[in-house]
Amino acid sequence: MTTTTADLKKLYNKDRKKKILVIFSIFLALITTALISLSLGAASPRIGEAITVIFYKWFPFLHIDPPSSLAITIIWTIRLPRIVMALIAGAGLAAAGATMQGILRNPLVSSYVLGISSAAGFGAALAIVLGVSVAALSGYLVVGNAFIFCLLAMVIVYMIARVRGMSSESVILAGVAVGFLFSALISLIQYISPTSNAVQAIVFWLMGGLHTATWQNILLCFPLVAVAVILMVLQAWNINVMSMGEEVAVSLGVNSKRVLAINMVLETTVTAGIIAFTGIIGFVDLIAPHIARMFIGNDYRYLIPCSALMGAFMLLAADTVGRLIMMPTEIPVGIVTSLLGVPFFIYLLVRKRRRSFN
Amino acid sequence: MKLTVNNLSFSYANVSILKNIDLAVGLGELVSIVGPNGSGKSTLLKCINHILKTRQNSILIDGRDTSKFDIKELSKLMGYVPQTSISAFPFTVFDVVMMGRKPYIHWSIGERDNEIVAQMLEFLGIGHLAMRQFPELSGGEQQKVIIARALAQQSQFLLLDEPTSSLDIKHQLEILCILTGLTQSKERAVIVTMHDLNLASRFSDHMIMLKKGAIYARGKPEDVLTAQSIEDVYGIKADVSLSNSGKPIITPIVSNFNEFTSRISLFFEEKPKEIKHENT
Q1: Is residue B273 part of a domain?
Q2: Looking at residue B213, which CATH number applies to its domain?
Q3: Domain containing B234: what range?
């Protein structure tokens, strides 16, 4: 039986290497999927051609012979922004979900439970109705409004929870309540909306989708998600310790209330920054972290990056399937994520070897 | 190094839990806190560790007010083992013990942290569990893991909240032998709350007995554990004899047993049974 100190250290280092290998494998799978997705669609430039376009655009100093202008249009202005947006959105949502589940010690936490999704929906609906009735629909009016209402929901949840001492239960209950409030307001807006166009636009927005992705949106989204995920990973030890309960966290020198507040701001901002552009994409932030847990365990130093990769993978795969399966009609990514993700997750849940939550 | 509790009072909302507690613990001592349920034992430990906020100058280390300490600095001086350990998401045993290094690490784990955790696992004889999931372990194993975590913290003062109350007799003795061993080198002090008066008697250097949030008695086990004090604090009669080593042995006298058996017929439709002892 291996029980000496030296053996134990070796065992731990081996475990660590295994985790890094798992993350690296998922990363490779992700890149491969992205390239395959890039070459699939109504008009299909081959993978080789797709890669040429990317190199031509990103590395002009290589002086590559320009590909056909049709290939450039399809790859560069239609498919690639959508794929990149799927990766960014999936990664950001899943990392935020993993972190919030850890901080609140609850495997059911997601942006739905915390009221963020409904708040974004209400913000967007309000902008759509006012935009349609007052002036021409401006894209950033909807985006800005959705983002602001997410932050508003967070402030309300925070203030309610603070009265009850910022316990994780109080944050979750306040989140659920605020979520229901905004859901009701969305229904109300749809009910009293003056035009059926507006109602349709609201329904479409609530389903979420990546078809609106542009390089401009990506330039706004990417820095936000990148910085937020790095900040989450830097806090990994705080989150680890908080999994053992608030008292233990304090006894190990972690100011748990402050960590909770910081992470509420961080996770809401990143989630809001994504769904303001894409519409409501649920499920990824709930499930991707759990799938990652099954692969890699619960040490948040590895779990957060692994969840981010898993979320990116799930969203990209779902969007690709949604794009292709009923051509030329597209199925919104939110629907596909659940339709494909749920059976896969149940399969993992039933056969899992590693207990990833209680 | 000396830990001093100085005229500590604590209340939840308007309910007073602790009243004017004074206590001094030096390195090398094993001090146990006994008292009935609700007498404030756990609350006292949590106040000492600043899990519950207290008034200034209530808890001092070498005369310095610990409420002015940075929470991280404090965690290098005091380790805490809660009554029950939860883990919302299961971690491996190695990871749980590594959490004890939290006050010393920022993000990446150093060779020294790795070494200390591995040593603590070996010291407590739980090395073979290192890669098991914490929630899958038995109560006794979990308790050892949490003690290993507190030891990995390398703090001078170790606070344990009823570490033996859910364990079998062998694990109870094992845990208390470990705690006694830790005080031998005079580099650590252990403060422990306990229900089992015989265990407390056998292993404590000093004891304090709490009654309704105030100290009723303090001193060596033989001074604290008397028939009189047990009747006053717990409301039961007990025989107190002395063991070979001069430590009190408490045998409760079940005098109101018959009162309960006769009451059974009032609440249940059955005749009170004659309960016979095997040896009578």
Answers
A1: no
A2: 3.40.50.300
A3: 2-267
The answer, as to whether pTM is greater than 0.90, is no
A353 interfacial to chain B (CB closer than 8 Å): no
Burial of A143 (0-12, 13-18, 19+ CB in 10 A): buried
Provide the 8-state DSSP code for A77.
Answer: I
Give B169-220 pLDDT, tens digit per residue: 998 999 999 999 999 988 999 999 999 999 999 999 999 999 999 999 999 9
> What is the domain count for chain B?
1
In a domain, B275, yes or no: no
pLDDT of residue A138: 57
Point out the residue among A5, A255, A355 whose CB comes nearest to the CB of B90: A355
**pLDDT for B9-65, tens place per residue?**
999 888 889 999 999 999 999 999 999 998 999 999 999 999 998 888 899 999 899
Task: Determine whether the interchain pair B91/A293 forms a contact, defined as Cβ–Cβ distance below 8 Å.
Answer: no
B47 close to B220: Cβ distance less than 8 angstroms? no
Q: Round the CA-based radius of gyration of chain A to a whole number and report it.
A: 22
Residue ranges of alpha helices (H) inside A193-283 are 196-207, 215-234, 236-242, 246-251, 256-278
Closest CB to A253: pick one of B91, B103, B125: B103
pLDDT tens digits along A18-32: 999 999 999 999 999
Q: Which of B46, B59, B89 to mutate to test the interface with A (most CBs of A within 10 A)?
A: B89
Q: How far is A179 from chain B (nearest CA, A)?
A: 24
Q: Which CATH number fits domain A20-351: 1.20.1440.230, 3.30.460.10, 1.10.10.10, 1.10.3470.10?
A: 1.10.3470.10
Among the partner residues A15, A244, A357, nearest to B85 by beta-carbon distance: A244
